[in-house]
């Protein structure tokens, strides 16, 4: 939490695009996204390294253990706690309530893994999503800053789609199948399975929004005249 608090202070000192400076409501979102980007880069690369360094973990999702994976889960728990506090203390709860729900699910699940030492490999696999989040956050930053190069946005749009499939949808689908088939539906296993299924619903909802926004804009509904200052992640 302290690390991300320091990154937030650093983000305050960084220059901001004119499109952000001219809209006071966007300043918090810009800073928040920069901290999110830092977490995605660090956690995404860390998750890849943990699985590359200890590939045998994939053969024991329930009881496999590595110090690197354990520390990664602690690190990301710190980010989710920090982001939750940032949203609440800056009075952004109404516009970011979906992310408060997501963070509550992640924190509760991760704390149970940290305490018991079980299912840490599942958490590392889930944190591969941060590789996808790198490009998703770049998309949001480009959109918010009104970048003058549409080619850059277009290139990132397709990379983001590929990464979404490879590092968000695929690991999520595999873990959902594994938990439904092999994990006991009681105690911690039942709690984590319920969290995973709720996360499935959220991911599919976000994916449909992303497709409508970037690939099928004619299908968007209710977005005309919407003030993007009221939305943290600008998915629509």
Write up this protein.
There is one protein chain. This protein is mainly alpha-helical. The protein has one domain (23-213). It is 74% helix and 0% strand. It is built from 9 helices and no strands. α1 packs across α4 (67-89) and α7 packs antiparallel against α8 (150-182). The two termini are 29 Å apart.
Secondary structure layout plus pairing:
Elements: H1 2-13, H2 18-21, H3 24-53, H4 67-89, H5 97-116, H6 120-126, H7 129-145, H8 150-182, H9 187-214
Helix pairs in contact: 1-3, 1-4, 3-4, 3-7, 4-5, 4-6, 5-9, 7-8, 8-9
Structure, briefly:
One of its GO terms (cellular component) is plasma membrane. With 236 residues, the protein is an all-alpha fold. The protein has nine helices and no strands.
Features:
single chain, 236 residues, mainly alpha, 9 helices, 74% helix
Count of beta strands: 0
Cα distance spanning the termini: 29 Å
- Estimate the strand proportion: under 5%
Tally of individual helices: 9
GO cellular component, one term: plasma membrane
Main location: membrane
Membrane topology: Multi-pass membrane protein
InterPro entries: TLC-dom (IPR006634), TLCD (IPR050846)
């Amino acid at each position: 939490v302290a690390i991300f608090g320091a990154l937030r202070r650093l983000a305050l000192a960084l220059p901001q695009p004119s499109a952000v400076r001219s809209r006071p409501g966007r300043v918090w979102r810009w800073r928040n996204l920069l901290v999110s980007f830092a977490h995605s880069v660090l956690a995404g690369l860390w998750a890849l390294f943990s699985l590359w360094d200890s590939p045998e973990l994939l053969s024991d999702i329930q009881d496999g253990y590595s110090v690197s994976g354990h520390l990664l889960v602690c690190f990301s728990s710190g980010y989710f706690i920090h982001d939750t506090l940032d949203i609440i203390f800056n009075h952004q709860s109404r516009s970011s309530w979906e992310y408060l729900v997501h963070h509550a699910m992640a924190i509760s699940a991760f704390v149970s893994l940290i305490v018991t030492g079980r299912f840490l490999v599942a958490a590392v696999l889930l944190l591969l999503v941060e590789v996808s989040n790198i490009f998703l956050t770049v998309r949001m930053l480009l959109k918010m800053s009104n970048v003058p190069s549409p080619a850059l946005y277009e290139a990132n749009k397709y990379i983001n789609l590929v990464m979404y499939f490879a590092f968000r949808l695929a690991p999520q689908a595999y873990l959902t199948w594994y938990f439904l088939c092999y994990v006991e539906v009681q105690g911690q296993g039942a709690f984590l399975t319920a969290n995973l299924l709720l996360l499935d619903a959220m991911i599919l909802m976000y994916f449909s929004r992303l497709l409508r926004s970037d690939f099928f804009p004619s299908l968007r509904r209710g977005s005309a005249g919407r003030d993007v200052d009221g939305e943290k992640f600008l998915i629509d």
